[in-house]
């Protein structure tokens, strides 16, 4: 079993701050340089977010490329979180193949009484930059922010527009790239330049 964070308290605090700042300031990149080596094919950034956000009461779902016995065992051992087979039952989803991510509607959407019961998607991306072809506007953004992330689903902009129309319900997304994370809360409008 691979070890978790080298310094669990401080490493989890740093990862939590990065995730919260990413969601509070959409379109900005927050440093996320975890001090752990998870089992392949789980990227260290996704592992750090999982070890920070998951606990025994937060069911998680993983896409097929990520759902290896070693990864499941690692996450269960370090978080106590139960893995689920239906994305609609998950509080969090870990997606290694972001391009093939299931439709956002497949995940928990929350309800008008409990919008907080929606899922947060943690998507691994190879390229993540603070400038690019995605134009963001809305809460937490002064005027506009730009972001580049790939790979993403080919219909990402249409998916996001549908997701945003569900507010206050809908999913939130954290994009995890090499050494950083960016947040896309459901309230943000995204267009392609």
Automatic annotation (TrEMBL):
Keywords for the protein's UniProt record, in alphabetical order: Lyase
Protein name (record): Phosphonate C-P lyase system protein PhnH
Gene3D superfamilies in alphabetical order: Bacterial phosphonate metabolism protein PhnH (3.40.50.11310)
GO terms assigned for molecular function: lyase activity
Alphabetical list of InterPro entries matching this protein: PhnH-like_sp (IPR038058), Phosphonate_metab_PhnH (IPR008772)
Coiled coil: none
Domain of life: Bacteria
Gene from which this protein is expressed: phnH
SUPFAM superfamilies, sorted: PhnH-like
């Amino acid at each position: 079993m691979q070890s978790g964070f080298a310094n669990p308290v401080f490493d989890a605090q740093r990862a939590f701050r990065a995730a919260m700042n990413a969601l509070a300031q959409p379109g900005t990149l927050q440093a996320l340089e975890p001090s752990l080596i998870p089992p392949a094919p789980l990227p260290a950034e996704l592992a750090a977010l999982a070890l920070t956000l998951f606990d025994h009461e937060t069911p998680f779902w993983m896409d097929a490329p990520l759902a290896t016995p070693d990864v499941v065992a690692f996450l269960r051992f370090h978080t106590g979180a139960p893995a689920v087979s239906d994305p609609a039952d998950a509080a969090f989803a870990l997606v290694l193949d972001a391009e093939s991510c299931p439709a956002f509607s497949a995940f928990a959407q929350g309800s008008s009484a409990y919008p907080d019961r929606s899922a947060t998607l943690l998507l691994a991306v190879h390229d993540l930059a603070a400038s690019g072809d995605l134009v963001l506007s809305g809460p937490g953004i002064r005027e506009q922010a730009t972001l580049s992330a790939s790979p993403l689903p080919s219909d990402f902009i249409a998916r996001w527009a549908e997701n945003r129309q569900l507010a206050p319900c809908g999913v939130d997304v954290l994009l995890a790239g090499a050494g950083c994370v960016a947040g896309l809360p459901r309230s943000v409008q995204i267009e392609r330049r």
